[in-house]
Amino acid sequence: MEFQFLNTIIVCFLALLHFSRNQQSRCATYTMYQKFIGSLHDDRAKPLWEIERESVQSAKYLCVRRCEKDHRCVGIEICTIRPDLSRCRGCCEWYVIDKDGGLPRNATDGCKYFDLSKDGVESRGIRLSANSNVSAVASSTYVHYDTPLLASNVLDGIYGIHCGTSKTYSSVGETNPWIEVTWSGTITIQRIVIYNRADCCGNRLVDLNVTYTNNGVTGICGFYPGLLSRHGDIILIYCPLEAHATSVKLQIQSKPGQLNELNLCEVEIYKKS
Ligand SMILES: *[C@@H]1O[C@H](CO)[C@@H](O)[C@H](O)[C@H]1NC(C)=O
Ligand SMILES: *[C@@H]1O[C@H](CO)[C@@H](O)[C@H](O)[C@H]1NC(C)=O
Ligand SMILES: *[C@@H]1O[C@H](CO)[C@@H](O)[C@H](O)[C@H]1NC(C)=O
User: Fold this and answer.
1) Where are the beta strands (DSSP E) in 54-177?
2) What is the CA(177)–ligand 3 centre distance, in A?
3) Is the C or the N end of the chain the one with fewer CB within 10 Å?
């Protein structure tokens, strides 16, 4: 605990040193906590941007400033590459939380990861409520024995250990399967939370293109390659600020000649608060 506390102070103190007098109070609302020692792994996170500098301090300082201005940024990874080279990356276009909430093992690769408090991140978005008339349609529906695994299962509020096969959405095996979630009115999407299938088959979630639509105009929130997707994973997708939308589409971009099954437990849409 003491170690974590110390690291929190360091980030805040460095920011303070560089902020001009009238900005100092901002530090109090922008505290980061050390979450783990080690780097963000390619298969679990896609950084937003990176900054390289000759010292850890200046990389950290620039990263904190940039993160503060980027509404998608929920954390920073700081690495000492060489004694005279440090790298800092903002997290993330997408980020995967293991079903057991497991953090990466503390590694000795010269990196540390800090993030904003859970409250700080969660207060940025408000979940679309049931009276937003949220609905889902999909490219196809797989029938498991006599039970169709319906698109509406991604909106039933059931995920994790309670998400048995019959509570899952599944497409048939096809090219570029998709599911689209629509609501009434235009919102600015803050994040999309995707709960991977939980009873099996987690590795089917690959090459997922997450796009949004507003009056026929399409934009991209993120692309999740899913190299090591596991059942029960939770994938957070942070959309760009311009993501004003009336619907979101999740589509597997099948490789040539390949058929895919899109399997999900739940999809949650959060609007910017
Ligand atoms: C990694 O280190 C941090 C801080 O020292 C500690 O709180 C955390 O529990 C460790 N995580 C693992 C997975 O060992
Ligand atoms: C709710 O959504 C459905 C399907 O998109 C649509 O047919 C219906 O008119 C909507 N109702 C309201 C109150 O917006
Ligand atoms: C994702 O979908 C968008 C819109 O259809 C498309 O322009 C883009 O190329 C797709 N991305 C990938 C990686 O397939």
Assistant:
1) 75-82, 85-97, 111-116, 125-127, 135-138, 143-144, 147-148, 169-170
2) 13
3) N
